[in-house]
Amino acid sequence: METYHGKSIFNGIAIGKICKYEKEQQQVKRIRISDPEAEINRFDHAREEAGAQLQSLYDKALTQVGESGAMIFEIHRMMLDDDDYLDSVYHIIRSQQVNAEFAVASTGDNFSRLFASMDDEYMQGRAADVKDISDRLIRILMGQTDKHDIMEPVIIMAEDLAPSETVQMDKDNLLAFVTTLGSSNSHTAILARTMGIPALVGIPVRDEWNGKTAIVDGHSGTLIIEPDDALLAGMQAKKEEELRQKQLLAELKGKETITKSGKKINLYANIGNVSDVGAALANDAGGIGLFRSEFLYLEAQDYPTEEEQFQAYKKAVETMDGRPVIIRTLDVGGDKEIPYLHMVKEDNPFMGFRAVRYCLANPDQYKVQLRALLRASAFGDVKIMIPLVTCVEEVLAVKELVEQCKAELTEEGRKFNENIEVGIMVETPAASLLADRLAEVADFFSIGTNDLIGSTMCADRGNDTISNLYQVYYPAVLRSLKNIIESGVKAGIMVGMCGEAAADPLLEPLLISWGLEEFSMSAPSILRARKTISQWTKAECDELAEKALACNTAAEVKALLESAAR
Ligand code: PEP
Ligand code: MG
After folding, report:
1. Do the beta carbons of residue 298 and residue 336 sit within 8 Å?
2. Is the pLDDT score of 331 beyond 90?
3. Host H or E run for residue 364
4. How distant, in Å, are the alpha carbons of 21, 306, 427 from that of 410?
5. Are residues 233 and 185 in contact, defined by beta-carbon separation less than 8 angstroms?
């Protein structure tokens, strides 16, 4: 038995035989030709055929993994028309008087080497895409077919996998991927996640493993070759339980989320970037309750331009196809450091110059984001959410900047939603105490329990020594949640929750009792929450909430909720 550790792309357990994935070796020869224009003609025909193949791959991926997963083939189609790529191929054919296969192979190598050498992880991921599209063109020029059949269920082991190779594999026979290369940002990783297939990267390829039984444990990121019988049986049982839970939950797909007494609840997904939208849809999210826009900034080398931000928000909104998308404006500071913003080190960063405080102190920079959000609102139901609000002044100041941006965009003749909603995260004790007043100036609330628990209990979420105090079950936190929700409901605005506690099955009945209408969580928790919510009537939730509020200690609350759990 041998164990290897890699980086997990998707959770879940797979048990089966390893199959080393052999790429078709393309031996491209350099052949002198006498008629470069005829060769260019041949290349252009191959491009047309590649375009048609990518269209059918797009259609296939669309049904398997949805719009965002299929998008990679659209990107490949765009690469086929890229001027730099085409100029290079034409130039090599004409200047060296060589065959199209050779010109494509040289261009593909040069471009993918260039991408691979870039610092940016996203651009490094594009190296595989250029290689993929070049290989496709070469196959067509050489008259080869485009097929990789897997005949039995296997764990695919490969140095690297191209997105088109991944999507063409027969999903029923694909138990897991383990690859040496590829980042969690690569499109193959994104596809694996959207297809829900356990996958690890950073695992070596060993010829001698081919055909051996192995376990891929996506929870711990390990590959175990030739596991002993006891481990195999244990993992088999874990996998069966996982499957059973998944099947039970899958039955809830496409259904409404309603309490046992008939109240409709919105279940939304939290996302970090545009590529997570696919998983949100695959798990039946009714909208995006929190788009943490800071990831756009964290992934960039410099402050993302208005156009870059607009494209990202627009893509998310279009993919969500009319469903609400709540985008939180930059929540920098605290534990989220963005080097190019050159923020000064602070003794107490969680209570420091962060989130809306930083943004309001840099209004010109903030307006770049607000303009991008407004422009995206012309393409769907975008809502703006302000993080770390502590007072009415902050909300008014942001709304004033939004109005300035609207005026500028109108002058420029750009479209946006005139009635865009501007809501707030309620995640500070100040905002909780002031919830009734804030409800007069905010269009909606979303409770950020991650910060709220910490600041209410004066307990840093990252400090293990005091982690016993960082719990949502403390009476102080419960009172705060009740107050926020009831204040919002009374004022007639939508109240949601996007902190981790929204996905806590023990807490959900209390939140329903107080009137929470929207629960936003990581996509894989959505169907489970739908089930929990369907098991409670409002009257049962009220009874439990009353008992919970009567408790004096977190331990009593937790024990009560556990004894009532369904
Ligand atoms: C929260 O504080 O609950 C929240 C959702 O925001 P973050 O975890 O990004 O601070
Ligand atoms: Mg927060």
Report:
1. yes
2. yes
3. helix 363-376
4. 55, 16, 33
5. no
Residues whose CB is under 5 A from ligand 2 (ion)?
427, 448, 451
What's the CA-to-centroid distance between 400 and ligand 2, angstroms?
A: 23
Q: How many Å lie between the centroid of ligand 2 and the Cα of residue 373?
A: 20
- Based on the residue annotation, tell me whether 342 is a catalytic residue of this protein: no
Q: Quick one: which atom of ligand 1 is closest to the CA of 294?
A: 9
**Beta strands 13-20 and 154-158, pairing class:** parallel
Give nearest CA residue, ligand 1 atom 5: 499
- Residue 136 in tokens: 């496709």
Has 391 been annotated as catalytic? no
Q: DSSP assignment, residue 523? A: G
Q: Whose alpha carbon is nearest atom 3 of ligand 1? A: 448
**Residue of 332, 335, 450 best suited for mutating to test ligand 1, as the one with most atoms within 8 Å of CB:** 450
Distance from residue 448's CA to the centre of ligand 1 (Å): 5
- Provide φ and ψ at 534, rounded to 5°: -70, -15
Is 414 strand, coil or helix? coil
Atom 8 of ligand 1, residue of closest alpha carbon: 450
Instruction: Ligand 1: list residues with CB < 6 Å.
Output: 290, 292, 331, 427, 448-451, 498-499
Query: Packing angle between helix 306-320 and helix 363-376, nearest 10 degrees?
Result: 30
Ligand 1 centroid to residue 395 C-alpha, Å: 18
Tell me the CA end-to-end span of the chain in Å, nearest whole number.
40
For 444-462, write each residue's pLDDT tens digit.
Answer: 999 999 999 999 999 987 6
For residues 536 and 512, the answer to whether their CB atoms sit within 8 Å is: yes
Distance CA 254, CA 273 (A): 24
Contact 381, 317 (CB under 8 A): yes
Among 450, 436, 248, 500, which Cα is nearest to 350's? 450
From the list 187, 359, 541, 551, the catalytic residue is 187
Q: For a pocket test of ligand 1, which of 427, 456, 500 has the largest count of ligand atoms closer than 8 A to its C-beta?
A: 427
Catalytic residue among 19, 359, 405, 498: 498
Contacts of residue 410, Cβ cutoff 8 Å, sequence gap at least 6: none
199-201 β-sheet, strand order: 2-5, 222-225, 213-217, 13-20, 154-158, 174-179, 199-201, 7-10
Going by alpha carbons, the residue nearest to atom 1 of ligand 1 is: 448
Residue whose Cα lies nearest atom 4 of ligand 1: it is: 448
CB contact set of 125 (below 8 Å; sequence gap of 6+)? 182, 183, 185, 186, 187
Helix (H) or strand (E) holding 222: strand 222-225
Asked whether the beta carbons of 131 and 112 are under 8 A apart, the reply is: yes
Mind listing the pLDDT tens digit for each residue in 502-561? 999 999 999 999 999 999 998 888 999 999 999 999 999 999 999 999 999 999 999 999
Quick one: average pLDDT of 361-387?
A: 98
Nearest of 463, 461, 496 to residue 481 by alpha carbon: 496
Amino acid 394 reads E
